[in-house]
Amino acid sequence: MTPRPPKYETIKQFLVHGISSKTFTDAMPSENQLAETFGVSRMTARRALDELEREGTVERFPGRGTFVRKTPHYTRGFFRVRPFRKWAEDINVTLTTRVLEAGLIEPPHEIAKKLQTEDHVVVLRILNCFDDKPVRYAVRYLVADPCARILEENLEQESIHDILINRYRLPLTKISQSMTAVGLTSPIARLFNIEPGYPAFYFQRLIFSYDRPITYVEYTMRGEMAFDDTFTPQLDPADFGALFSHS
Predict the structure, then answer these.
(1) pLDDT-derived band of residue 39, with 50, 70 and 90 as boundaries?
(2) Taking the model in full, what pTM does it have?
(3) How far is CA 72 from the centre of its chain?
(4) Which of 54, 84, 115, 203 could pair with 219 in a Cys bridge, judged by C-beta atoms 3.0 to 4.6 Å apart?
(5) What structural domains and CATH numbers belong to the chain?
């Protein structure tokens, strides 16, 4: 079942759309106005405004109200999530995918904690190759409801991300991720056909649909892989509208 957005998230999307469409260019609706419009408590309306303030979209001034941020808000340059198939296309290589394991398991304690579930979860172990050269090993865990049917999909030909968004209609609204430099462990080094200790990147990524964790994945990637990106260091409110346009 597709999760419904929390009430504060509905208000937040309304405000983001209002900013990106220039409906709101200065003062934002007050907590009281939003609470009355959406039939919620002031606390719920306040949470939506608080999140926009933390993200740098608005500024709040006691006694005056909430206003669209006029000055640039700078973010830390890090790395964005891009479909792996798109990356392969951009560097003109052939991507092949091998599913090493796919099934339902009782989640290890740390995975159950991350996904906030005690039920069985889907586990997928996948090896990606560029021009037949192993470059990425992934272990992914997904909540069984609503993701168990992904075991019936052709995961060697289709993107998991695309399946979740376009086929299962799951809005993937937030990603928490980290990247660390590591040396390859022996089991993964064997998959890559290289010596243990070879430099690699280790990613951890937790993906949410609104407030609910949907999937947690750990990637190990060969250390010679390069990450190129071009982006503006200024937060553009229109970017928030794009986040919810891919349903």
Answers:
(1) very high
(2) 0.67
(3) 24
(4) 203
(5) 7-74 (1.10.10.10), 84-222 (3.40.1410.10)
